[in-house]
From TrEMBL:
The protein's name: NAD(P)/FAD-dependent oxidoreductase
Protein transport is among the record's keywords: no
Cofactor needs: FAD
GO MF assignments: flavin adenine dinucleotide binding; NAD(P)H dehydrogenase (quinone) activity
Lineage, highest ranks first: Bacteria, Bacillati, Actinomycetota, Actinomycetes, Streptosporangiales
Residues reported to bind FAD: K55, G102, D293
Length: 448
């Protein structure tokens, strides 16, 4: 390979997405000489292929727009997938943008499309990528991942979605709302398996009412291209015909092909890069940091931004430790599914004695006023420590009215104080009052 030596930077940031952009601009604004290496679009997945187009389509669906209007609005919001404004932001901050795929050659040297650049600190923000399950015939048929589903103008007549996690559920609601005949295949027995069971049940009920065919507890076992479209075989013996398959079967951190082994970093394909509480990656070479989906810690835009702030602070010499206890996980369907902290499944794995209290939103006056009684909230407390450690809610606008619970978990607010908080009438937010009183009554000193 013909390589030429270039500049020596204070820091090279690999990957210019949600996490990489603010680390690079923050370092540059602090006077550091920084290069941001990006092989696709500066800005990453979120503004062009993930959060923004999916939320735009969900919003259009709620407002009853036509598919053509929805696609036009989505493409306008994603700036037709042009990163010119993001590149201009970087230039303004004083960051050098290096277009191309970066990889480490040896400690202190990265190569980007044949040019070698020196660095003192390396910040890995390479995000994640969809997993394509090893199913017979799947590799031989045209597939969509969420990136295609959120950037092309096609509305398939029969759409099969593989996976009933956050991506599968959001996409099912979008495409069903605009008229596709949608089937979701989910290997586990319920939607949103990582979260409290009631959340997946509320969403399943809503999706079924929209005409979505949910195949829960069935895995895809084979696919074949036929003259009439795609023929799919399921592990339960069933078959399906489809025009398009959207694979939403999970994502993995992008850790391979980056040359990180040359720094003595413990790279495990399919797993996040190990980071300590300062977002530093243990390595033999020192000066290696990571933020965002590549860490596998909390795979959301707000978590990537948080880790970026933590990494930036430490890179600038101000020690800061990340605390992930109060970071929410949201599925932006209608109703919204909101989770924060420890789920009941996770608590069982950790051997925590969990106190649970719940409330159906139907019992609030707000639900009667809105004529929308869907949903429930559940709060989880650690009986021994007497504090909230998790919560889940399925309900309209839940991401807006559950914020106080995230704060309570993060701040370990005493249950007695939480139970004394008054919510405006009539709101869905009132739904947390009864469960908080119940939990406060159960823990020692909680009702003080
Ligand atoms: C369909 C979908 C919907 C989502 N909706 C939401 C939502 O509503 N809210 C939310 O909080 N989160 C959502 N997420 C998750 C969110 O998109 C991610 O958590 C976030 O984008 C992670 O940011 P990141 O910086 O880690 O990675 P990315 O934004 O993916 O950035 C990584 C960048 O690194 C670049 N790169 C990779 N390798 C190299 C290399 N070797 N050299 C140079 N560049 C490289 C990539 O091109 C990419 O631009 C959604 C995800 C999906 C898939
Ligand atoms: N609003 C948000 O914050 C948001 C929205 C979408 C995605 N995301 C992020 O993206 C990540 C990926 O989401 P996802 O939904 O792709 O992944 P996921 O891992 O959460 O869910 C994938 C689902 O696919 C199922 N599955 C896997 N292989 C299968 C097979 N062969 N047959 C049938 N089912 C199969 C799994 O059982 C699982 O339930 C999430 O962890 C989340 O952090 C966030």
């Amino acid at each position: 390979m013909n390589v030429s030596q270039n500049h020596h930077y204070d820091a090279v940031v690999l990957g210019g997405g949600t996490a990489g952009e603010p680390v690079a601009s923050g370092l540059a604004r602090a006077g550091r000489d920084v290069a941001l290496v990006e092989c696709r679009l500066v800005g990453g997945e979120s503004p062009y292929f993930a959060c923004v187009p999916s939320k735009s389509l969900l919003s259009s669906a709620r407002r009853g727009e036509t598919w053509e209007m929805a696609v036009a609005r989505r493409d306008e919001l994603t700036r037709r997938r042009s990163d010119d404004p993001a590149v201009a932001r970087m230039a303004e901050a004083g960051v050098t943008v290096l277009r191309g795929r970066g990889r480490v050659l040896e400690p202190g040297r990265v190569e980007v499309d044949g040019v070698v650049h020196g660095y003192r600190d390396l910040v890995v923000c390479t995000g994640g990528e969809p997993v394509i399950p090893p199913v017979d015939g799947l590799a031989d048929v045209p597939l969509w991942t969420s990136a295609e589903a959120l950037s092309v103008p096609d509305l398939p007549r029969r759409l099969v979605i593989l996976g009933g996690g956050p991506v599968g559920c959001e996409m099912a609601q979008v495409y069903a709302a605009f008229g596709s005949q949608v089937t979701v295949i989910e290997a586990s027995g319920r939607l949103l398996t990582a979260e409290a069971p009631f959340a997946g049940e509320v969403l399943a009920d809503t999706l079924r009412r929209m005409g979505v065919d949910l195949r829960l507890g069935a895995a895809l076992s084979g696919v074949e291209h036929k003259d009439t479209g795609l023929r799919l075989w399921l592990s339960d013996g069933g078959t399906l015909d489809a025009d398009r398959i959207l694979v939403a079967a999970g994502r993995r951190p992008r850790v391979t092909g980056l040359g990180l082994e040359k720094l003595g970093v413990a790279v495990r394909p399919g797993h996040g890069l190990p980071v300590d509480e300062t977002c530093r990656v243990p390595s033999e070479a020192g000066g290696v940091w990571a933020a965002g989906d590549v860490t596998g810690v909390a795979r959301t835009t707000h978590a990537a931004r948080y880790q970026a702030r933590v990494a930036l602070s430490n890179l600038l010499g101000h020690r800061r430790e990340a605390d992930y206890r109060g970071i929410p996980r949201v599925v932006h369907t209608t109703p919204t599914v909101y989770s924060v902290g420890v789920s009941p499944t996770r608590a069982a794995e950790l051997g925590i004695d969990l106190l649970t209290a719940g409330y159906d939103l139907a019992a609030t006056t707000r639900a009667a006023v809105e004529a929308d009684e869907r949903g429930r909230v559940e709060l989880y407390a650690d009986r021994d420590r007497g504090v909230l450690i998790g919560a889940a809610a399925a309900g309209v606008g839940a991401a807006e009215w559950m914020g106080e619970i995230a704060l309570a978990i993060r701040a370990e607010t005493p249950l007695g104080v939480l139970a004394d908080v008054v919510h405006p009438f009539p709101t869905y937010g009132e739904s947390v009052e009864a469960p908080l009183r119940e939990l406060a009554g159960h823990v020692r000193g909680g009702s003080e």
